Amino acid sequence: MEVTTENFKEVLPSILQAVERADFVAIDAEFTGLRRKETSRYCELDTIEERYIKAREAAKDFGMIQFGISAFRYIKEKSSYSHATFCFYLLGKTGDMLYYDNTSLKFLADNGFDFNKLFKSGLPYLSILEEAEKRGEFVNQALEPFPPSPVKVAEEKARKFLIETEEKIDALLEDESREVLVLPGGTLPGFFRKLLYNNIAAKYKNILIRSLTTDQERNIEIRKFDSPEARLKFLEEERERKLDEKVGFTHVIRKVLESGKPLVGHNMMLDLLHLIQKTVQPLPDTLEQFKNVVKANLPTIYDTKLLAKDPPFCVDIPITSLGILYSELCGKFSPPDFIVEEGYESHSLSGGGQAHDAGYDAFMTGVCFITMVKKLDGSNWKNKSVIRSKHLSQFSSRLNNMNSHDIPFLNLVGPDVQTDRSRIFCVDCPAEWNVGNVHGLFNMMKPIKIVWVSSTFLYVIPPEDIDKSGCKQYLKGIQASCPPMVRVRLYGDTLSVKRKSQSDDASPGVEASASRVHEYKRLKSVGSDQLSKMTLESPSMEEVPPIYANANDNGKRMKTNQDAATDGVFAIPDEWCEIPDREGRPHLVPLVLALFIFFKWFW
Amino acid sequence: MEVTTENFKEVLPSILQAVERADFVAIDAEFTGLRRKETSRYCELDTIEERYIKAREAAKDFGMIQFGISAFRYIKEKSSYSHATFCFYLLGKTGDMLYYDNTSLKFLADNGFDFNKLFKSGLPYLSILEEAEKRGEFVNQALEPFPPSPVKVAEEKARKFLIETEEKIDALLEDESREVLVLPGGTLPGFFRKLLYNNIAAKYKNILIRSLTTDQERNIEIRKFDSPEARLKFLEEERERKLDEKVGFTHVIRKVLESGKPLVGHNMMLDLLHLIQKTVQPLPDTLEQFKNVVKANLPTIYDTKLLAKDPPFCVDIPITSLGILYSELCGKFSPPDFIVEEGYESHSLSGGGQAHDAGYDAFMTGVCFITMVKKLDGSNWKNKSVIRSKHLSQFSSRLNNMNSHDIPFLNLVGPDVQTDRSRIFCVDCPAEWNVGNVHGLFNMMKPIKIVWVSSTFLYVIPPEDIDKSGCKQYLKGIQASCPPMVRVRLYGDTLSVKRKSQSDDASPGVEASASRVHEYKRLKSVGSDQLSKMTLESPSMEEVPPIYANANDNGKRMKTNQDAATDGVFAIPDEWCEIPDREGRPHLVPLVLALFIFFKWFW
Q1: Mean pLDDT over residues A278-306, rounded?
Q2: Which of A12, A195, A352, B77 gives the lowest tally of CB atoms within 10 Å of its CB?
Q3: Has residue B216 got a pLDDT over 90?
Q4: Would you call A99 and B99 a contact, using CB atoms and an 8 Å cutoff?
Q5: Chain A residue at shortest CA distance from B325
Q6: pLDDT at A216 over 90
């Protein structure tokens, strides 16, 4: 069901009820753009902090113009899932000033997005923080800022207007059958308007004059009251009603967050950041602060793209974009039955829909989620809703980190995977350089992968069979043959410099932890895959797999999926490593060290 | 006629012809917003340079999404005007990143603007400067940046794909009846795509592989050639054709500018700035540089709002917004007959249209222009096209400067009016201050007019009966009673400080000219009116009224029009003054002064 200002009030109760009854809520959003500056383009070797900063910038710069919510519920007796899907058109608050990328909007228009509906009847929203601030301001804010003071009237026309208006108001005051008088305001000169708000308002204490826009006509309403108190009460109620209207779509999000129902999205980092920025509070400056905001406000989150990039799905479905994933899962992995929640219009498996409509995308996401978890649960799936599957814990509160060389996800509730990039070369070059120049410089190692960061900086990822010390050896040769204006070094150097500035306000011991790093060899052979074997701590403590999983190296299989193909031309094993979390929970490595020191000194 | 990518190619010749035949071209534009920051809000006491900076910022920040052109031509034998009107939907170039104000877009949508048409089929455009730069780049730019190098293929599926594709290409090369082979690309994994562009392209020299998007399908076209030269020629033509497509709407504007036909707009400062920014070159930093750009690129310009604010129109039509002006002029000032230019769809006087559609607005602007000039010409109007009226010279190349206290227009081709603001008070106050506090501080002078610039700075305009020395006297009393944190001074101080910084790179003699100022007492009684009596030099030297017109002071009539009413609550005469232009043409005042000194000394 599409939700706009036309039907919002009417359907809000049923939306809230659908959320209340749901097992989980699938979401999707559409934006006015993805990246404002060339320097904000995602780079495969972004650190996870850099990636957050880039995504945060997009969520601050661009509009969120559509939001889809699909509330799913397991009906055990029918072994099927009911769903109710809503597609909200979002305009935001008056005077919101955001960027649009005409290419993004063309893409949406070509996919059937109705921009006329958006701009005519899009819903307003305020963030929960903005709403609280407004309510705070009410306490000290007078309902009428300044008592009206009459202005001089010299001109005949104006005098006449005043007298006529006063006669009309006197008639209104005497007529018990009427509450209001409406004056046509469309062609009223501004000075006459001023006379109303100053001279008339000063003369009559128990009336209220306000502009009123109906059907694109600009009128002026004069309303009478029995007493000044009744007038003030009316003003207060109006203020409350107007704020309530401004909160708009956030009424729905507040309900979703307060209900604690898990959120499910597909490749949902941007969706989640936009959602927080627009309806919760401004996104904080650092990833660490962001995680605190998430912990304080959001329920558990699942990203279907992460599930899809894991076996068994990645084997059969190499492309994980939502539309293709949905049709492939429906074709190959026998989804359960879906029935439309009674009393709701919604999509259906057979009915089809328009991809990139946030409602349909949310629906498809929910179907993908259920179908994948059903598959993971095997024959047990009928016992309970998929949302209670033990297989979910390893995906809990992790966002797919798209187009990353070695960081497959952002961990919303704990430390992120630490990467070892000491084999990667960093190259500063003149702006005229192209791929040929880079291949020329690195001609002794083949095949290399080039990752351009800007026209004057790039990374070179060496072939997998060259190890760290090999890279150091090559570096000497390369530096010796470097043309002027070109500087080559290994990532470690850059990284340590960066880390220094980044960790200024981080907890102490980060540097030290690098030496305590626990490394995983992992083949990025099929998607950013085998996530299940690579898990860190999970926020859900039930069914958590061991903190340190077994290293997993499947050897030299060629990458064959979409990611592999777009990432590069050869398969490289990624080194993964992990640092203990910074919040002081005891970890194995320091414990072993302490025991070692203890025994060394006392035995 | 609406013009989009659907019909642009087809109708372009007839558009160019209509411009070629026209006497003048009326224009109008619609934008995605007007003002991004609160500090960019127009203030009645903006200097003309400040106003340019604010308008320039808007033209850089926001999109121009619709442009209307109405080409008018006088047909003497019928004593009527023909017209051809075009409404262009404008999307701009791929990846243009601009702001949108959701309130502005809602306003347009409520007035029938078709955003779906805009984003699906809006025209591209490049500025004339951008086009020249692109052509310059072609000289040194290789048609193909880097020769393809094959990548390793290990996986069975990929091997199979390569072999099958090679078979298809071999068949294409042998088949004389076919030029191209199209491969479905929508579901092609990225790595397979890479194989095409690297391995296949490296093997076959006389083919061209490129992606092809048709009907939202992403396909890959493989085209064969007889020789490498034929292939290069095709690439070159393609590059030229693509640039031509990107130039899009600018083809029309280039024609308009090159034709030298006068441009007519209504309150057209923003329209003109957007037009230059988007289709000519980036707007320069200063007003002076901007005037040079205008002089170098633009024909004569007339702003109908300035005509409408002058007698006799302002007397009968107090509101000068386009829609109201149009219907009032048609009702009260007997427009001539209008006939639709043969072969063109267009609007008509009787047919009506949708205000805020740029095409209809341009048409209404042209009708207003002709009707007003016809009135000014009196019984002579049938002799020639209005564009040759002697009454136009005083409006030539002047843009209405909306919502200004004392600067009614921006002079595009000469110096602007210099104002005397030495009676105006400048007040720095705490952010908590409101109108009541200001009235309290200025309680000895009534009525005052308050012009807020920010929450901590405002101007106070004293009643007209207090002269400069009176203001200085009051200042002492006000300063004596000033609460802490409040500072009051007269405008002169502020102004001289500002001037100093502003005139760093201005021509010398600006400061000196202030003492040579020639003042006009002028009643802002009906519009920013009686412009005809207040003229500076006009760029058209024929029929120019005397440079120094008689001072005109109609005394104490109350302001009754829209401007007066929104400006303030009382009528104040505005002081106008003028400095000689900076380009060295002799002026009367220095001449008179020189003669005076000459006679004083020698007689």
Answers
A1: 97
A2: B77
A3: no
A4: yes
A5: A187
A6: no
